[in-house]
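Comment thread on ticket #2218

A.B. wrote:
> Attaching the input chain for the structure job we discussed in standup.
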Amino acid sequence: MPVVRSANPIRARSLIRDNLEKQAGCLNLIHSRMPNIKVFSGTSHPDLAQRIVDRLGIDLGKVVTKKFSNLETCVEIGESVRGEDVYIVQSGSGEINDNLMELLIMINACKIASASRVTAVIPCFPYARQDKKDKLAGSEESAESKKLAKKNYDWKFRSRAPISAKLVANMLSVAGADHIITMDLHASQIQGFFDIPVDNLYAEPAVLKWIKENIPEWKNSIIVSPDAGGAKRVTSIADRLNVEFALIHKERKKANEVASMVLVGDVKDKIAILVDDMADTCGTIVHAADRLVEAGATKVYAILTHGIFSGPAISRINNACFEAVVVTNTIPQDGHMRDCPKIQCIDVSMMFAEAVRRTHNGESVSYLFSNVPY
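C.D. wrote:
> Ran it. Output below, let me know if you need it in another format.
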């Protein structure tokens, strides 16, 4: 400590006290910025959770997750959460059912341990494609539905399909979640399934930043939706880039068989940028890329929020005409990037970290709908 000299002894004591307070302030800077907050990670995406707490300047909470021999999930919270604002990071990826159950147990464990508020941070919301009764298993029908189609069964059985996204919403609420933070819901109306606040963040600001920094000729580009359902998403991005947009209409003869893809818009001699919220087996975006090349596009990029990449997805991308397939890290992508050099990743941890900080401090998160918080 520097020597403090003053003719006035009261003034000297005051200066010493000020010095001590400054040093204590430096040591406790992190804790003073984010008091009464705990962030825990499930097993689905620990890397994203670590990135979030690194940006917040706090430590990841201690939690032990294990399975008994009968495969029951067991969660032990390793520190006190009494009166704390708790955030649990768990994405709907990998072993989705196990990860969902783990999230529910973690929420309930924190709630009955007297946490003040429990927020589930779910970057990729599970079962989001099962959001209405007129489809079976999201954007692509199941193997069972193919067999039924071959036997010419009456397709009215679709009306008995579940609305699983609503069921997940109910489960999260009953477990004790007070708030949900997610990104690019497959259908934004899923927010209405909850009776608790839901912040649906958008990857759009990060996507715009990536396009401007990584596609030199982006001013000669056209934003394309691979299906009619994504028209609103691509028009928003096209407007902000001040470029044109197009969409592809799929015509089906029967389930799971695309008869033709009709391109609405002119992509000749332009860079086509396919934009969608998620890609699973990648059949649609690969067919769309081929259609764009046939129509005269010079290059084709695909930008997706949630890169699920199941089944034959990686081999399809490797054999397709993409310059790059860009995804966010709402789902772990390290393995996919090793298997496919075309896949690139946008880090969105700063958006979740800022959403957590703003929620904890009672600030508005609407800033994140149009800005990247670097």
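A.B. wrote:
> Thanks. Noting for the ticket: Residues 9-27 form the longest helix (19 residues).
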